[in-house]
Amino acid sequence: MPTTLPNRPGDVNRFAARYRAAKCFRKAEFDSLTHDTADGYGALCHLLLAYSAFEFFLRAIGTDLKATSRLRTDTERDRVQDRLRGLPGHREVLNTVRAHVENRFQRQIDSHLAGLSSNPFYLAAAIRHSFAHGFLTATPEGVPARSVATTSRYLVTVLFRVIDREFERRMTDFERMLSGE
Any alpha helices (H) in the chain, and if so which ranges? Predict the structure, then answer.
């Protein structure tokens, strides 16, 4: 994505449609898969939808992935990273994903795994990319069962929390501007 993005009305409409679909998502059903595999694919599908909404949210507000660090405080960043690091198997999930993404995503994964500051939106993007392009499965070899599902679900929560907060803040600012405050 370019550094400066236009925020056209169509981008807002596309964001709204993707957000609604992602927010309404509850589960995906599969025949003949184990519970863990079906759950993992359901969580990956939810991340795919949520990240798509996040991408169009960024377009609607005229920003890109590189500038997303301003969407969270240092305290929030640390809390998100600590919680993610506490998820069983998340390290193995990110190591599996790492081989299938661009250098900019690999650097964020490496920083996160080294205990340094990283951007969780890059981590979510890396998982989404690996799944969408067929590299990541719900139960990859060497990754503890349910790790893909729990890691994906947590990142969906992070994406929604930021989208919801930022959207509400912008609407409040807009309403203040309209009322002359």
Answer: 9-24, 35-60, 74-85, 90-98, 103-113, 120-132, 147-179
Q: How far apart are the first and last CA of the chain?
A: 35
Residue 27: CB atoms within 10 Å: 12
The residues, any chain, with a CB within 8 Å of residue 153's CB and separated by 6 or more, are 43, 46, 47
pLDDT tens per residue across span 80-132: 999 999 999 999 999 999 999 999 999 999 999 999 999 999 999 999 999 99
- What's the CA gap between 179 and 160, in Å, rounded? 28
65 secondary structure, DSSP code: G
The DSSP 8-state label assigned to residue 52 in this structure reads H
Contact (Cβ atoms closer than 8 angstroms) between residue 18 and residue 52: yes
Question: What are the extents of the domains in the chain?
Answer: 9-179
2 by Cβ neighbours in 10 Å (0-12 / 13-18 / 19+) ranks as: exposed
Residue spans of the chain under pLDDT 50: 1-4
